[in-house]
Each structure stands twice: as structure tokens, then as C-alpha cells.
């Protein structure tokens, strides 16, 4: 089992290579092409990847979903409407970047096409793929834990250098979720923005 990072505009998606390859997140609207060409570079047939799991419903994680073709899309229950309707979940910002964000948001918050998805629950998704509910950044944030390689994909629950994000809907829940992640003592922690923590 292996995790590949797919660098997109300001954000990443991830490919979990295993018995069944799984794509995590789909970037901003317009990222579909880039994801597909990167998958081909990795020697994958993008049509054979049937599962896409979203870490949460911020637009820079679900915006490119409709460009990926026929897939089975999974997101936490609380994010389902955003995914289906292409609805924008406004980031709750708690730092000076708020002003910058206000200026940039008409460009970032482009409308996008929704896709049909299914709700994903905490627990085993497929053999070796565990879903952990990690709310705080948003109320639909999940992390994907891979016990076989003791690695976890946390989306935006942690940022580069494992800093807690300054965007969150609930601070206490965020702290609890970060603790939950740390208790697993993962060797590798993959984050969507910035540098992942890779020890192996
Ligand atoms: Zn986010």
C-alpha cells in the first residue's frame, strides 16, 4: 500500500494505491484534467479507479468532482448537500488572512457542478481503509487511516508542519480531533495544504 500526493492549485489530492485504488479529494473546479493526467503518469487507468472519498466539503476539495467521470463519491453525511448541489461551504476564518481571503473569494468561490454521493461513516470502508471522524475544521471532516502503513490523510484538520488550521468551525472539536490523530502515532501524516509529515 502506498500514498501518492497529487499537487493541484493551492491544494492536493491523494491516490491510495492498494488492492483497490482510491482517490482522495478532487481539488478546485477545473482540477479534473490535472488529476487525470497525473494518474496516467503514475501508470493508472483513471477509468478503473471507482472510489473517490472527500475529506470534507470545502470547495477546494470537492470542486473538481464532476470532471472525474463516472465514480462512486463518498463524503460525511454533513457534507452531502454541498457535494450534490455544488453548494459553497464558507470557510470560517480566524486569522488576519481573513481580509486577504475576502479580496480573493470572488475568484476562489466559483460555482461548480455537484455530483451524486453517498454518506460515509466512521469505521472500515474497505479492507485496510479506516474512516475516522475528525470534526472541527468543518463538521464533515474525516481522516483516512491506513493501518497497514500506519499513515493517515487528514485533509485540513492539520496544516503544513502539522500546525492547526486557522480555518475552523469549532475550535474544541478541532483540538479533540487533532488529539485523536496523534493518539494513532502515525508515521506519515498527509495534509492537503503545505508539507506533509513523512517519516518513512
Ligand atoms: Zn478546508
From TrEMBL:
Keyword Hydrolase found: yes
Keyword Cell division tagged: no
Pfam families, sorted: Lactamase_B
Molecular function GO labels: hydrolase activity
Record key words, sorted: Hydrolase
InterPro entries: Metallo-B-lactamas (IPR001279), NDM-1-like (IPR050855), RibonucZ/Hydroxyglut_hydro (IPR036866)
CDD domains in the cross-refs: yflN-like_MBL-fold
Domain Metallo-beta-lactamase: 10-193
Protein name (record): MBL fold metallo-hydrolase
Organism of this sequence: Acidianus brierleyi
Amino acid at each position: 500500500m502506498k500514498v501518492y500526493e497529487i499537487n493541484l492549485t493551492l491544494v492536493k489530492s491523494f491516490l491510495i494505491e492498494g488492492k483497490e485504488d482510491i482517490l482522495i479529494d478532487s481539488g478546485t473546479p477545473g482540477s479534473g484534467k490535472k488529476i487525470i493526467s497525473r494518474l496516467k503518469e503514475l501508470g493508472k487507468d483513471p477509468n478503473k479507479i471507482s472510489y473517490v472519498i472527500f475529506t470534507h466539503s470545502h470547495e477546494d476539495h470537492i470542486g473538481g468532482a464532476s470532471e472525474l467521470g463516472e465514480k462512486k463519491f463518498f463524503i460525511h453525511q454533513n457534507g452531502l448537500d454541498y457535494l450534490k448541489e455544488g453548494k459553497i461551504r464558507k470557510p470560517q476564518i480566524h486569522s488576519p488572512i481573513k481580509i486577504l481571503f475576502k479580496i480573493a473569494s470572488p475568484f476562489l468561490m466559483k460555482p461548480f457542478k455537484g455530483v451524486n454521493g453517498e454518506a460515509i461513516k466512521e469505521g472500515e470502508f474497505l479492507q485496510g481503509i479506516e474512516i475516522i471522524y475528525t470534526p472541527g475544521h468543518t463538521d464533515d471532516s474525516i481522516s483516512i487511516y491506513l493501518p497497514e502503513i500506519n499513515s493517515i490523510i487528514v485533509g485540513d484538520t492539520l496544516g503544513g508542519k502539522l500546525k492547526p488550521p486557522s480555518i475552523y468551525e469549532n475550535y474544541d472539536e478541532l483540538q479533540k480531533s487533532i488529539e485523536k490523530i496523534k493518539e494513532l502515532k502515525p508515521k506519515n501524516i498527509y495534509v492537503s495544504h503545505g508539507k506533509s509529515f513523512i517519516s518513512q
